[in-house]
Design brief:
alpha+beta, Alpha-Beta Plaits, 4-stranded antiparallel sheet, 7 helices, 8 strands, globular
């Protein structure tokens, strides 16, 4: 049975507080097995018989909206996909590991359009570096250079699509724990 990682947008941010045991139960109500949550930022790991990730995303989104009363955009990745995301070299290691730098992975549902990609990449600066690979945007935030203007709405506006952002360390921890 395939294992999936659900990265949920709007969980425990902006006043939308969801306890992890409640989130786990909501996924179990959908018939998923081996459901676990990982830190309280909307990361859910589960097994499902269905292999069509787009239909699973839609099913989860509908159930969460009905249960929680607001839209929860869902971004699913398989074990192989998450492993590839963690291994992808978006920026040189030296730059990623520099003092104060943080690498984020922004999950989107489809590969960004040419126009959205161009718009985002054109906004790269000494503070914010961007790299797009398939359905992920890698964002290198160079804090020593200043404060970023790319949080949530700015990223989404540039890309022209919804996203949820995770620190790459979270992705690496998930891969280490679940992707043998």
């Amino acid at each position: 049975m395939p294992k999936y990682f659900a990265f949920l947008r709007a969980i425990n941010v902006g006043g939308h507080i969801v306890k992890m045991d409640q989130l786990k139960s909501l996924f179990e109500e959908l018939g998923f097995t081996n459901v676990e949550t990982f830190i309280a930022s909307g990361n859910v790991i589960f097994d499902a018989k269905v292999t069509n990730s787009k239909s699973l995303e839609h099913k989860i989104e509908k159930h969460l909206e009905k249960s929680l009363g607001y839209e929860v955009v869902t971004f699913l990745r398989s074990v192989d996909e998450l492993s590839a995301i963690a291994k992808h070299s978006a920026f040189p290691e030296k730059e990623i590991n520099a003092e104060g730098h943080t690498l984020f992975v922004c999950f989107v549902n489809d590969k960004p359009s040419g126009e959205g990609s161009k718009k985002l990449l054109a906004q790269a600066s000494a503070i914010d570096g961007f790299h797009i690979n398939e359905r992920e945007v890698y964002w290198l935030y160079r804090r020593p250079s200043g404060e970023s203007k790319f949080y949530g709405p700015s990223l989404e506006k540039s890309l022209g699509m919804k996203t949820t952002v995770r620190n790459v360390n979270t992705v690496h921890r998930l891969v280490k724990k679940y992707c043998k």
